[in-house]
Amino acid sequence: MKHCYSFYLILSLAFVSTQSASESIASYPEGWENWPIVKETVSLPSNTILPSDTTLFIQETVDAYSWINNGEGSPLTIRVNPDKLEQYKTHGPYTDGPTAVGVSEVQGIIWVTEHFGGLPIYGSYNREGQDISGMHPTLEAEFCQRCHDTYKDVCINGTCAEPVLSIYQSDSSN
């Protein structure tokens, strides 16, 4: 019986650690819908062919989110907490609290960037404020953190500055 108890304890701990790994760290910011829009872009469809000189950041972003809207892409709206607009213009440093949201307009995904102790933290929610970070690996806070940390030249202090749409449009006009 003691051996069986140990097995269930280990199994329970594994389940709890898996559950907590996929939870958002940033909180859902009530009222984000009224924050000013600072950027409009898109998550591109899965069949997008990017120009050969597209940055690695854009290539990986397109690859990571090509599943959105069944691979059809979606308009993406970036909104910034009005209390942090001046900080956003210089990409920080940021004061604590909710900073920005990215909204996949078709799918209704709300990516949240919040700052705590001067550091960015992340979360993924639906429009009703429910944590959806477990819905897809690219919605997990750890995924966001890893990408933003990898591309610190683009994601300064946790907010990214290279819109996908403008790069795609500049090539498609040729």
UniProtKB/TrEMBL annotation:
Residues 1-21 form the signal peptide. Keywords: Signal. It comes from the Bacteria. This is Cytochrome P460 domain-containing protein. The lineage of its organism: Bacteria, Pseudomonadati, Pseudomonadota, Gammaproteobacteria, Vibrionales.
